[in-house]
Design goal:
3 strands; globular; 2% strand; Amino acid/polyamine transporter I; 15 helices
Amino acid sequence: MDQEIQLHTTPTPQPPSSTSPTTKPQTKTNLTLLPLIFIIYFQVSGGPYGAENTVHAAGPLLSLAGFLLIPFLCSLPEALITSELTSAFSSSDSGFVLWALQAFNSPFTASFTGFLKLLSSTINCATFPNLCSDYLSSTFPSLTSGAHRSLFITLLILLLSFINFTGLTVVGYFAIALGIISLLPFVLMTFMASPAVVPARWTAVRKKVDWGLYLNTLFWNLNYWDNASTLAGEVQDPQRTFPVAMLVAGVLTCVSYFVPLLAVTGALAVSDDQWSDGFFADAAGMIGGKWLKIWTQAGAVLSAIGLYEAQLSSNTFQLLGMAELGLLPKALSKRSKWFNTPWLSILVSTLITLTISFLSFSDIIAAANFLYSLGMLIEFAAFIRLRIKLPELKRPYKVPMGIAGVVSMCTVPSVILVFLMVVSGWRVWLLSVALMFMAVGLYFCMVFCRSKGCFKFSTDVSLEVNSVEGLKVNHVNL
């Protein structure tokens, strides 16, 4: 098997002909800045829903400190790397898969990275219907467990996947409305709680800190910044739009977590044990009454919808991008005639999400974090490798650091990622290792299918790279 990627340079790159078989079809959605901001916001956060376990695991002081520090230690490096590499490789939906491909000249590494991130993201999708059930269970006790909960989660996943099928433009503008409506109860809760705040309550620390739950919850609420890179081919003027969208979404994310936590932990004298999934709705009832509790629960449902739609959009366009690179069957790049969406990719992502939706909330978070952490370690290495390998690559946005600076920037989050992987429980390790072997197996399955002609693959894909020399990925030989 030829493991090399055929690369060539052209002194004066010419624009591709509209009739060329190697030209990517002009199917861009042309997402603009505001919808992209809220799609990124929902890919990462969607509001403070789900952050309660940090207080449960460690108490108010460490919870607040975590939402102040982790954005700078982990989120900021991820966002900066995504901004730089997306601006450099802006014509493809394959995002971080193409980064790994260019950095290491290895289809296997690119495929492995892609499958790790895809499995992580689809596992992550399963948390949102679960979170929605948790918030509604106080009003509808039948959703707490059993057949009713399972049926609700299944139907919700299918419904939300169908909404995604209607198009990325719908998802983008829908995300704006969902973001505003779901955050409004927290704005009201914060103002209503302010007069009752006792600053001394912020200094409390749980006697026995559950570091695994604490860090996994923090990380789950503040990661997946790179997922937006798989939408680069659908964004209007991505070289300028992405860095601005990342900055605004980052500020919005940090504020939406820290401020409500600051207000509620300071205003309510409750046990840390009460801070479990869905407690923000109970806190809203204590602070503002039943009407605010119901609004917060409704906001959680809307936030879950936005989270699922944004995450599924990233997954499906990643599959589309990998299919265009020739790493997956060409059928995954086909779009619906009605909505211009990759319908088969949506179906695949939905089926994976359904198969793991029975796991407990904490197990799902930990497994998703484990796979995501391994994928991010490869991305950090690819980022540094590309700085060394392609110093002349045109980067419309560039992190203002040299090699030593970017290595230092990547070191701290890498240490945190490794720690998260080490402290994972045996069930998470077992599931994650099984999924890693699945990712390896999927690559060799594609090699076999391609050699036997089982599926059609894109074997002559011309993806322009924004380089001084006109560097191109011509096609991938598995």
